[in-house]
Hints:
- The chain is of the alpha/beta class and 439 residues long.
- The chain has 2 domains: 2-198, Rossmann fold (3-Layer(aba) Sandwich), CATH 3.40.50; 234-439, 3-Layer(aba) Sandwich (Rossmann fold).
- It has helices at 10-21, 33-40, 51-60, 70-73, 98-110, 127-138, 158-163, 175-184, 186-190, 200-231, 235-243, 264-277, 283-306, 335-344, 357-363, 373-377, 397-403, 418-423; strands at 2-6, 25-29, 64-67, 79-82, 115-119, 144-148, 168-171, 195-198, 315-319, 348-352, 368-369, 382-385, 408-411, 427-429.
- The protein has a 6-stranded parallel beta sheet, with helices on both faces. It has a 6-stranded parallel beta sheet with strand order 11-10-9-12-13-14.
- Helix 10 (200-231) packs across helix 12, helix 12 (264-277) packs antiparallel against helix 13 (283-306) and helix 13 (283-306) crosses helix 14.
- The mean pLDDT is 96.
Amino acid sequence: MRIVMVGTGYVGLVTGACFSEFGVDVVCVDKDAAKIARLKAGGIPIFEPGLDKLVETNVKAGRLSFTTNLAEAVPGADAVFIAVGTPSRRGDGHADLSYVYAAAEEIGRALTGYAVVVTKSTVPVGTGREVARRIRAVRPDAEFDVASNPEFLREGAAIGDFMRPDRVVIGAESERAREVMRQLYRPLYLIETPIVFTALETSELIKYAANTFLAAKITFINEIADLCEKVGADVHDVAKGIGLDGRIGKKFLHPGPGYGGSCFPKDTLALAKTAQDYGAPLKLVESTIAVNDARKKQMAQRVVAACGGSVKGKTVAVLGLTFKPNTDDMRDSPSLDIVPALQQAGAVIRAYDPEGMKEAKKMLKDVTWCESAYDTMTDADCLVIVTEWNEFRGLDMRRMQQLLRHKVIVDLRNVYNPAEMAAQGFAYHSIGRATGTAA
């Protein structure tokens, strides 16, 4: 089979590389000439564990290639995937579909025979119908079907998620389109992956419903963590107690500074806006958005409180800037609220992230960028863990004691044990647990 992937962002590049690993001939298309040149030269524009080797292997095998010329790539393809960005539209929070529609029209003009045009981008209900309408408008004679095939890839674990997914969701309404998609995903049939075929609208809504449910679950445990601090309970024990209930499940019940990233913030907002437009407002989703936004802003106050009520003139060491570990993605990361708020309160920031500093430097100003976790701690009055990278889980306590001016730690990811930290002489503050006070 032969497919075209329009867009070489996170979803497009990972999906294209993984399909090529299945033995499919994949051409990835992007208008960004510099990005395509980098990919052709063996460079990878995003950080995702294992992606560099996967791309290299399949390029050498001749199954994966890159181009800026969509008109040349599309003819002869069995399926053309639209995997361009759908960011929140400025001013109203709706998903910006301009890139999707532009790609659809360009695909329509390039079609020479039957193909399935697949929306891989996260798009609101009704987008597939509009994609079909726009293709017909530019090419009334085109032979095609539109399908929806939402992605469920976790940044940092995307390759494994694609190769061994919980399910594959496909919205398609003709048997011809369904058969093309079945053949494309045949390797997953062989390992008995559930393949769910639905109508276009259902498939589009499944993606938003899944992300919004997980965002609500994160927000719920964060609010429970706040209550735990007030009543003297331990949020991790609460999470375990409810997570063992099969109806609830243990995943996404880890408290922290709020969700961020490329999906949850924009998808919850887009779903809320869509529901309002259809006269079926989702009050739970709207509350999830508001609570999460407020939480990220509140995290700086936790640091201020741990420093005795003021950080003016104090040095704060920040470990982790990306919204989660194993990615360089800074989009809507809690650090983008925490660091500026601390600076506004008068703090001097020393920061380090294993992969995210290149992107962070574009978004955060007046920060001292450090070479390692320990480098941030030199004469710092407080250490803040914002992202739970593995290398932050086993820090040398003696070295920390020597480097920090004051042994104050605010752990927003609950990496360490409060009692053990107190025994090491640290004033340790975490989320939803008793504060560890130095003996």
